[in-house]
Design a protein that fits this description.
Helix content is 24%, strand content 26%. By secondary structure, the protein is α+β, with helices and mostly antiparallel strands. It binds one DNA strand of 18 nucleotides through helix 1.
DNA sequence: ATGTCGTAACGTTTACGA
């Protein structure tokens, strides 16, 4: 089973690109971020034609997450638990049935947090604390669980082309990285890092300043695996070529293949 | 050239978020 995450930066602008990618990469499960649309603005037909069930958690203009799965979707949960006041659409969970064992997938779009310090940075850290609580709950079930999405966190210096340019940025500040590693150290495996130790693996290049042409990238889209999922990992990778196509997202897909 | 996108708003341009 191949599970991919892709921050598409706008479903309306990216639909043709997204469908081409689905036809070519054919992931069994796709977790999408930054729909930038309400649920009604996301067409279901093109996905259903391709054999996918779809669940969306949208919001006008900003954020928005979705999950697509060929084998169907069960027990969909929208929104990160822990704060009923939080209206931002950044979290979706679903169970994928049909394999040897069911897989629980969590798709997330973690807050950017800039400028830091400030209220947006406080929101990011509070959101990460809530996510840690949810991760603890799901890990206690000892199931095959995948947490994938745009974390807006650069874990280490090896994950950024120009580390010194990101020193004060919310994506690279010590508080953000510490919160990321607190979750990782609960027993999760960073799929890409487990299999590809080399530096220079990026998932995002800014549209500005010819960042792609200069390979001035950062690794912020991550797939974290529960121990039961990590034991099933066969391969994983970053779909870098997506960045050089016409009208690309500023992110590229990241995928993992599980033996299930 | 405050550099690039995507989205929404009474919109042929501006503001915001990233």
């Amino acid at each position: 089973m191949r599970i991919a995450t892709f921050n598409i930066n706008g479903i309306k602008a990216r639909l043709p690109r997204l469908l081409d990618w689905l036809d070519e990469a054919r992931p069994d499960v796709a977790l999408l971020q930054e729909l930038k649309s309400v649920d009604e603005g996301v067409p279901h037909e093109p996905f259903e034609e391709r054999g996918y069930s779809i669940a969306t958690h949208g919001q006008k203009s900003f954020n928005g997450v979705a999950v697509l799965a060929r084998l169907g979707l069960e027990d969909v949960v929208c929104g990160l638990p822990g704060d009923p006041e939080d209206v931002q659409a950044r979290w979706i969970e679903a169970t994928i049935p049909g394999g040897k064992v069911p897989v629980r997938v969590c798709g997330l779009y973690l807050p950017n947090g800039n400028p830091a310090p400030g209220p947006k940075f406080d929101y990011k850290l509070a959101w990460m604390a809530r996510m840690e609580t949810r991760v603890r709950e799901l890990l206690a079930l000892e199931e095959v669980t995948v947490f994938a999405g745009d974390y807006n966190v650069i874990p280490q210096r090896a994950d950024v082309a120009r580390p010194d340019a990101w020193g004060e940025d919310a994506l690279f500040r010590p508080e953000s990285r510490a919160a990321f590693f607190r979750m990782l150290h609960l027993g999760l495996t960073d799929a890409i890092r487990a299999r590809h130790p080399e530096p220079g693996l990026y998932t995002f290049w800014d549209y500005q300043a010819r960042a792609w042409e200069r390979d001035d990238g950062i690794r912020i889209d991550h797939i974290l695996l529960s121990p039961q999922a990590a034991d099933l990992m066969v391969d994983c990778g970053i779909d870098r070529v997506q960045r050089e196509l016409e009208k690309p997202s500023d992110h590229v897909p990241v995928w993992v293949e599980l033996d299930i």
